[in-house]
């Protein structure tokens, strides 16, 4: 939404100078928009999951992760007359931001800047919304563009190290802990008595590594639960007698 109160105090030339810039960090292609926002929506989500809890209707909650910041921008104006390019060409190139980079199988990373504020690196999330005003010949005279950007880690946009292939992400390690918690609840009666009591009283912790190994730690001692491959917990060779 435009900041109309601020715009009304400006001349036409000053109004057109309020702008934002979107840059494809892979190709260095740039798009300039006329934009003077009244507000910007930023959203961060805290995610958790429930684990089965024996003898209680209140489930034990495991924190999993906090999402990266998401920013929603609406009604950025593409105007070929002001910007010196064909709006239809700009729209066609903008749509490439929704396509996977064939070399890395990921979306192009983006920098977005308005005033002194800059978001980098980011990717598009959800849909790219484009509403165009048309000339009589049906060509686009100008377009209003809306989109959501999510920040990504710098190491997410670099080439993968061959040694990292097969390593679990932080989210997968969280899933490994959830799988271990579910298994322990189902096999509680098979655990050693001392470990069983500690488990029931939640006096233990989980430990994982990027290779998928999962342990529980009781009184400072590690007991291997199994190995998580990203989807399944393999308990062969576990140290709990399961």
Report on the architecture of this protein.
This protein has 2 domains: 4-156, Elongation Factor Tu (Ef-tu), domain 3 (Beta Barrel), CATH 2.40.30; 166-234. It has 6 helices and 13 strands. It has helices at residues 4-8, 12-17, 80-83, 87-94, 170-186, 193-200, and strands at residues 19-24, 30-34, 41-43, 46-51, 60-66, 70-79, 110-114, 117-134, 140-151, 205-208, 213-218, 221-228, 233-234. The strands form 3 sheets. Strands 2-1-7-8-9-6-3 form a 7-stranded antiparallel sheet. Strands 10-11-12-13 form a 4-stranded antiparallel sheet, with helices on one face. A two-stranded antiparallel sheet has the order 4-5. A hairpin with a 5-residue loop joins β1 (19-24) and β2 (30-34). The longest helix has 17 residues, at 170-186.
Helix tally equals 6
Radius of gyration: 26 Å
**Helix and strand succession?**
HHEEEEEEHHEEEHHEEEE
Describe the biggest sheet?
A: 7 strands, antiparallel
Number of domains: 2
CATH class of the largest domain: Mainly Beta
- Poorly predicted tracts of residues: 1-17, 158-165
What do the pLDDT scores average to?
A: 76
Distance between the termini: 59 Å
CATH architecture label of the largest domain: Beta Barrel
Helix content: 10-25%
The strand count comes to 13
Which class best fits the helix and strand makeup? alpha+beta
**Range of strand content:** 35-45%
CATH topology category name of the largest domain: Elongation Factor Tu (Ef-tu), domain 3
Oligomer: single chain
Strand order of the largest sheet: 2-1-7-8-9-6-3
Q: Outline, from the CA principal axes?
A: elongated
